[in-house]
Amino acid sequence: MRVIIQRVSEASVTINNVVKSNISAGFLVLLGITHDDTQEDIEWLTNKIIGLRVFSDAQGAMNLSVKDIDGDLLVISQFTLHASTKKGNRPSFLEAARPEIAIPLYEKFVSTLSRKHTKQVYTGEFGADMKVRLLNDGPVTISIDSKNRQ
């Protein structure tokens, strides 16, 4: 499982010209799922996201988590995070999980994140053509892969 986490002042996702979700200060999480991801990956990654201390405290230091600031979370599925560009100029997406594997893992990821954050986690729509808007705060953008824990 691979995520790109962006600290945002605001973010939204629009599908077919209709805003599905929008958030205030918090994280926009782009989530890529591969065919060998498990519940263990979900647990580890959601703990990392909830505990990630990249929000400013009263002194301006990055010491607070999204939970500490009661921030919002918006999770967007993005299979292109597992693109391989080793050969040629057209990316290969063979490592990305097929929908029958990815959808249940995506739903479990969102529900686990919501339980750990103790508030609603907003989403896009799996497999939809989405327009994502964000105001990156900082900018702060962090990449985490559950297969690279060391």
UniProtKB/TrEMBL annotation:
It holds the Pfam family Tyr_Deacylase. Keywords: Cytoplasm, Hydrolase, RNA-binding, tRNA-binding. Its EC number is 3.1.1.96, 3.1.1.-. It is found in: Cytoplasm. The keyword Lipid metabolism does not apply. It catalyses: a D-aminoacyl-tRNA + H2O = a tRNA + a D-alpha-amino acid + H(+); glycyl-tRNA(Ala) + H2O = tRNA(Ala) + glycine + H(+). One of its GO terms (molecular function) is D-aminoacyl-tRNA deacylase activity. The keyword Cytoplasm applies. InterPro entries: Daa-tRNA_deacyls_DTD, DTD-like_sf. Gene3D superfamilies: D-tyrosyl-tRNA(Tyr) deacylase (3.50.80.10). A motif (Gly-cisPro motif, important for rejection of L-amino acids) lies at residues 138-139. Homodimer. A Gly-cisPro motif from one monomer fits into the active site of the other monomer to allow specific chiral rejection of L-amino acids. An aminoacyl-tRNA editing enzyme that deacylates mischarged D-aminoacyl-tRNAs. Also deacylates mischarged glycyl-tRNA(Ala), protecting cells against glycine mischarging by AlaRS. Acts via tRNA-based rather than protein-based catalysis; rejects L-amino acids rather than detecting D-amino acids in the active site. By recycling D-aminoacyl-tRNA to D-amino acids and free tRNA molecules, this enzyme counteracts the toxicity associated with the formation of D-aminoacyl-tRNA entities in vivo and helps enforce protein L-homochirality. This is D-aminoacyl-tRNA deacylase. The lineage of its organism: Bacteria, Pseudomonadati, Bacteroidota, Flavobacteriia, Flavobacteriales.
